[in-house]
Amino acid sequence: MKSDSLFLGLLVALIGAVLVATSWAYPALPGQAYGAGTMPRVVGSGGVLLGLVLIFQGWRQGASRQRFALGAWARDRRGLGVLSVLLAAVVYILAADLVGFIPVASTVLIALMLIGRVQAVTAVITALVASVLVYVVFSRFLLVPLPRGPVESLLW
Amino acid sequence: MLGQALSIVAQPDVLLTVFLAGCFGMFVGAIPGLTASMATALLVPITFFMDPVPAIASIVAATGMAIFAGDIAGTLMRMPGTPASAAYVEDAHRLSQAGRANEALGACLFFSAIGGILGTLVLSFAAPQLAEIALKFSSFEYFWLVMLGLSSAVFVSAGSPILGLVSLFIGLSASLVGQDNPSGAARYTFGSIELLAGIQFIPAMIGLFALSEIMRSYTKRSVDARIPPVKGPIFRPQFALLRRYPKQTLRGASVGTLIGALPGAGADIAAWVSYAISKKFSRQPEKFGTGHVEGLVEAGSSNNGAVSGAWIPALVFGIPGDTITAIVIGVMFVKGLNPGPMVFIQQPEMIYAIFMVFVLANLMMLPIGWVAIHAAGRLLSAPQRIQMPLILVFCMVGSFAINNSPAGIIIMLAFGVLGFLMEENEIPLAPAILGLVLGPMIEKHFITSMIKADGNLLTFFERPIAAGLGIATLLLWAIPLIRMLTRHRRGVTTS
Predict the structure, then answer these.
(1) Taking all residues of chain B, what is their mean pLDDT, rounded to a whole number?
(2) CB atoms < 10 A from the CB of A73, how many?
(3) Of B182, B83, B177, nearest to B139 (Cα)?
(4) For B168-203, what is each residue's pLDDT tens digit?
């Protein structure tokens, strides 16, 4: 998703303005002019300035250019691939605590590999071996408390 | 005393620990999505079962190796392992695309080791003196130093400085989140308890660099693309490079050690400042960012020089300079070695033993690194459609393991989308991560300085070192502006 300088400038200036506007809500150090609001004000003002420069650049380039251009990938199967990566992470975040690491990680792996057109058998074997291996190494040896479910309880 | 120190180090258990920890660091660091800080953090519980010297040796070895190993994924896949290696990831990656991965990785390895060893030599001979100087740094000097690091990231890297500034703006805005500010107010946390501690930079970095790269791999027409395996000699080209760039190597290592010695400054600023210096004094500055090895040599040795330099405040005063030294100071206290001025008087043999371990770890990095380059090169050349899903799982585990909290994965996801959109719009990623890491530091020193100066900005230039750093920073800002104006004027006259 490519936007032109005008839109990018508007966005940056807007975020900058929000930072400046909200900065006044944060208290200064007692007896001082500076505090938690100072930095948001400085960064925000910088953002507004930067946004104005970008808007100027975009305005000079003229309106002939497209405001937004989606890459060619977004229109075919590849767009699905990009979305599935995000979806996989969301599924992991939501489900791992409920069902445990191995089932969720292997499901996510199988799904992503199938979307990448890996052969089903290869995908299933790789996914299962990898998720069990990662679980054992990180949870058992490196003491990272990866989410445990019924499958993990079978291991030890 | 050196003999005593040597007898502590030259024990089979110490040597074996250094070797095993080195392999562990290499393994963790080489996997995209897992980082050097994570390797260190994961090692801590294991060190509880060790004697003091092997315990510290294991962490030193694992860290050094993991930092180098991060360059492997950086070079081959453009997923740098640390903010510091983001300084030269573009050059390294382009070299590997041009079929010169062996040269690029060899340079990362070889000059990291040289930087580390030179840094350790400085550390052994001049730690107390350097620490004295570092203590004289006030908030003004720190403010300008951080500004210099950030400005280098924006103006030195290839691409448009305006888009570099957009990236920095994103990073600095993200760094505002949390309670780590002068009044301790919960800023932009939207009621979330997880956000009180701010946005963790490691998951953010994994998202920006690794997750966005995974997403990008799915936009390519052929998901079957493979990374070419690393071919050719690793070390042989390095001797020629050392002969060609001796000044750059030394300058990188010394600038790195000096910046590393400043508590809190660390390898991230050092690598960027060295990359900028290298470009400024290079005979071919136009080649930087296009796959030129010179910046790699200087920033690579600076990076590891700074890692060694960071031990100066850590050992002399017990002030940790970064996450890794902070973890080690914790381990030292547990082991009854209390870092601080007295440790040099009470247990000098221990300190010298630790210095020897540094040298040993840097030397051992060469053979283990050689094996790792070949092994990782082969592993990472598996088809991307199998590899990318696996890397995603590592990214999620790596983001989770930093605080053992799913919030890390959410941060990674958010920054992954952000990084993907930034790349689509040709906004460089590195200034954003540097802004996020250094944001709290610049805020602290800026506010302290403003209060001290009573709002008078000229005071920022009153102390000599601060003035020098300040002028260097302003020059960095002025050069692109002047260039833009002259280009504009030339455009007007020709039209």
Answers:
(1) 85
(2) 18
(3) B182
(4) 999 999 999 999 888 888 999 988 888 898 998 889
Average pLDDT over residues B261-279: 82
Can you tell me the distance from the alpha carbon of B305 to that of B292, in angstroms, rounded to the nearest whole number? 21
Look up residue B217 and give its two tokens. Answer: 């791999």
Going by C-alpha positions, the residue among B70, B47, B69 that lies closest to residue B57 is B47
Residues 186-215 of B with CB under 8 A from A: 187-188, 211, 214-215
**Residue B260: predicted pLDDT:** 84
**Chain B neighbors of A28, CB-CB under 8 A:** 183
Q: How far apart are CA A9 and CA B434, in angstroms?
A: 22
As given in the structure block, the two tokens for residue A134 are 């990662």
Considering only the beta carbons, identify the residue of B182, B187, B412 that sits closest to A29. Answer: B182
- Give the pLDDT confidence score for residue B221 in this predicted structure: 65
pTM score, whole prediction: 0.84
Select from B354, B380, B128 the least CA-distant residue to B229: B380
Q: Does A154 touch chain B (CB under 8 A)?
A: no
Predicted confidence at residue A140, as pLDDT, reads: 85
Q: Verify whether the Cβ–Cβ distance B397 to A19 is below 8 Å.
A: no
ipTM of the complex: 0.93
**Contact, B17 vs B362, CB < 8 A?**
no
Tally Cβ neighbours within 10 Å of residue B99: 12
Q: Which residue has the tokens 């070895």?
A: B61
Buried residues in B395-408 as b, exposed as e (16+ CB within 10 A): bbbbbbbbbebbbb
CB of B485 less than 8 A from some CB of A = no
Each residue of B13-36: pLDDT tens digit?
A: 889 998 999 999 888 888 887 888
Shortest distance between the Cα of A123 and any Cα of chain B, in A, equals 8
Which residues in B3-16 are b (16+ Cβ under 10 Å) and which e? Answer: eebeebbeeeebbe
Alpha-carbon distance values, B403 to B57, B202, B445 (Å) = 24, 10, 27
